[in-house]
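testing teh design pipeline on a random one, pls ignore if ur not involved
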């Protein structure tokens, strides 16, 4: 198998601008909604600014004159307060509306990305899943997507609001007092410098946090799936130690990121209080020495209030920087998966249902006939020819390695005529499963040729190639659904009767009928409520209902007891009748009746022949069969 990438494998950070641009492309279909959001944010910012500026008018034009009146008239004041209340109401409704709309945009964009990510994942080659921990892939659907949602629904609208608020408030400040505005800009520059410094230090720890979280998720998923093995081999302490190391990396990155993030708020608040004091002193001096010509008491109050409104967006942006950095790190991991090259398929020969006349003429048809043919379009003259699918598979001088620098199959040549049963035996790692992976085109060969009914398999479309092959793997995977659903997974248009017949053929019918709800029993957790042997029987029934012309049985009876194996073997013999069959087995008793047995050692075929001929040779197979030495 190809080497699996180490957990927490480092990745170079991509261009954040490119990532942001790509995210904006997903939000493009919400252009009208985003326009409404920006308008609402603008209204909210203007309402807040106008209400703060109105404090100066309230003091200078209403409260101060009323102090000199013996019998003050409250009518104008109440009218002004009513207008101010309307402004606050507009701002509040605008804030509610843009928050609601951005939540909708965030969820919609999140769904689109998740859908595309899952769709693209289905196109990835087996090599990708063999080299990436399942938990790490899962974390991209969970934690990475969640940080992206938070950025889209919270961080982006708050950042846009902060920027618009800064612009609107700055104009109001400049209109209120240009001199104090200059003092404000000097103090703000210090706040911005501190914010930039702290945010820059926290960014790398947030990126590290996301990667470490993926590694932890991967390890936890691995331990859950292998919990029985962990307990059997008393591996609990080692597992705890390994998890502690991964968790410590996560804790270290997360704590440092949180430390800088939590530091930013208090630092900005204290700098804001210092700025407020400086502005109050400078404004008081200006108001006193200008005797109200440059700055009145009301305008000073309004300016100080606006200065707080000016600092608030800066604090908002600084607080959102961490969320945005973390979300961009998650987005990069998501786009890493989405940018993985899809499985290439340049095949053009397809598999079709066919009717075969008495004269051998092949006619393509839509309905299932039990006969298949290869449909071969010729690009040169536009004609189409048909060749009956017989199951003739040959390999010529095949070399292969999961990685270029290490070849695991050397000069493999084999011939499987239609209806023959070919068996592979040999020690673990000898290359048995690798050969079947090449027939399936899970991997492509480095050198040599593989032909299927005298057609180069590279010319056959992969989906059609795999549809012609029935596979029963050593590791059984059952999906959430009924027993009937899991059997029908082999052929979605199979009737209930055909599924039951397939179960009988695999000798699974008896135990299925004893389940609480028979074929309608719900299976969850990879069939956790079934024994390993029962799961394997369902997998065999799944392959049987597909009724393919070629079968690949990779240790298909490894999890079945000897008594059941004899019954299943009888059923499988009926299933294999008339089909080309490749069998991988450690139990040599299951391959005795094979037409050809191939003994592999370190990627080479060292012996081949029938059971009797190999016994007569007294070579490796003879020693394996007689127990002189055992398969490892």
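output:
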């Amino acid at each position: 198998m190809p080497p699996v990438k180490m957990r927490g494998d480092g990745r170079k950070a991509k261009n954040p601008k490119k990532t942001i641009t790509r995210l904006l492309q997903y939000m493009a279909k919400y252009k009208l909604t985003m326009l409404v959001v920006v308008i609402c944010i603008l209204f909210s910012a203007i309402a807040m600014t106008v209400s703060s500026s109105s404090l100066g008018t309230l003091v200078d034009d209403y409260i101060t004159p009323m102090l000199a009146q013996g019998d003050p008239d409250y009518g104008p004041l109440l009218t002004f307060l009513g207008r101010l209340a309307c402004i606050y109401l507009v701002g509040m409704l605008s804030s509610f509306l843009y928050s609601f709309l951005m939540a909708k945009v965030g969820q919609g964009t999140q769904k689109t990305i998740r859908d595309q990510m899952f769709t693209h994942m289905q196109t990835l080659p087996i090599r990708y899943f063999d080299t990436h921990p399942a938990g790490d892939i899962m974390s991209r659907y969970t934690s990475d997507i969640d940080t992206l949602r938070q950025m889209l629904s919270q961080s982006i609208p708050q950042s846009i609001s902060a920027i618009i608020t800064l612009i609107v408030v700055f104009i109001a400040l400049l209109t209120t007092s240009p001199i104090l505005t200059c003092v404000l800009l000097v103090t703000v520059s210090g706040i911005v410098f501190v914010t930039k410094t702290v945010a820059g230090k926290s960014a790398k720890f947030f990126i590290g946090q996301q990667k470490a979280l993926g590694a932890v998720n991967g390890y936890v998923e691995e331990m859950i799936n292998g919990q029985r093995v962990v307990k059997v081999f008393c591996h609990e302490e080692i597992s705890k130690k390994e998890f502690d190391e991964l968790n410590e990396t996560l804790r270290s990155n997360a704590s440092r990121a949180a430390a800088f993030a939590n530091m930013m708020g208090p630092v900005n608040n204290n700098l804001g209080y210092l700025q407020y004091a400086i502005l109050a002193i400078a404004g008081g001096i200006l108001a006193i020495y200008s005797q109200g010509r440059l700055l009145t008491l009301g305008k000073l109050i309004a300016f100080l209030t606006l200065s707080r409104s000016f600092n608030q967006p800066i604090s908002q942006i600084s607080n959102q920087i961490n969320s945005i950095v973390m979300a961009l790190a998650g987005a990069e991991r998501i786009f890493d998966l989405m940018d993985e090259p899809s499985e290439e398929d340049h095949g053009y020969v397809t598999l079709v249902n066919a009717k075969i006349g008495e004269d051998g003429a092949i006619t393509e048809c839509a309905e299932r006939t039990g006969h298949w043919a290869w449909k071969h379009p010729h690009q040169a003259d536009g004609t189409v020819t048909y060749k009956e699918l017989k199951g003739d598979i040959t390999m010529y001088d095949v070399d292969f390695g999961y990685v270029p620098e290490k070849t695991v199959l050397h000069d493999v040549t084999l011939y499987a005529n239609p209806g023959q049963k070919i068996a592979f035996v040999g020690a673990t790692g000898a290359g048995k499963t690798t050969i079947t992976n090449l027939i399936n085109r899970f991997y492509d060969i480095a050198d040599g040729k593989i032909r299927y009914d005298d057609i180069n398999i590279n010319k056959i479309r992969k989906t059609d190639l795999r549809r012609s092959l029935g596979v029963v793997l050593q590791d059984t995977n059952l999906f959430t659904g009924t027993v009937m659903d899991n059997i029908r997974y082999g052929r979605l248009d199979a009737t209930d009767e055909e599924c039951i017949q397939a179960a009988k053929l695999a000798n699974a019918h008896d135990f299925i009928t004893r389940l609480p709800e028979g074929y309608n029993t719900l299976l969850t957790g990879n069939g956790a409520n079934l024994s390993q042997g029962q799961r394997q029987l369902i997998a065999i029934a799944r392959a049987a209902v597909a009724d393919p012309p070629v079968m690949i049985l990779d240790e298909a009876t490894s999890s079945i007891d000897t008594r059941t194996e004899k019954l299943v073997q009888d059923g499988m013999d009926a299933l294999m009748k008339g089909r080309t069959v490749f069998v991988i087995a450690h139990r040599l008793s299951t391959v005795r009746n094979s037409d050809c047995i191939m003994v592999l050692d370190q990627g080479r075929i060292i012996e081949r022949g029938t059971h009797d001929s190999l016994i007569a040779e007294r070579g490796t197979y003879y020693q394996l069969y007689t127990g002189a030495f055992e398969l490892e």
